[in-house]
Amino acid sequence: MFVIANNRCGLVSRSQQTTVKTPNKDRLYIAFYSKPTATLDSFHTALLITPKRPNPKKVQTWRYHVRENARNSGDYHRWEYEGGRIGNGDPERRLVALVHLCKMASGVSNVELSVLFQDVEISSRWDDGGDRDWITRAIELLTNRRVIGEMALSLQMIWSNGYRFAGLVEGNEERVPTCDIYGRMRKSEVRREWRRLSQS
Fold this sequence. Notes:
globular; 7 strands
């Protein structure tokens, strides 16, 4: 059973941030990854749930998204759902930037979420944007099921702010550049796995 979220995401005042102590809850992000080939959308997008400061040497992050179907022919759709644990790095694509959406309520199971997200509609179209459409529907599902609170902006605006932010960063910083839902830079809590391994 999911824990009901009582607070709206993105609506914590500065006074609340400085006076209210919150436990080290997991974070929900929209992740922007580089694409191996050029398309109309410059980035591949996914949902990430991480601890407050994920250890880059451990597999602590959960990623939920639709990826390109490797079969990519015949009667198969272009996109297929994938959810599971990953490290901070990805051998197939580079994590460019993150949008911090909110903190997850205590007690939410990532395994249960991976099952819940199987109910999210996957685009049957062959054009770009199926990954973007999927995360929008996935966040709407979390809100409708009261797993998270309502967002202070439309999901389309949040995605656009993140897309713009990702286009401005270099993508090779030690910590993954992170913004809030308004596209404003915030302190990153996610280190890049590849940078850590290269120093060992």
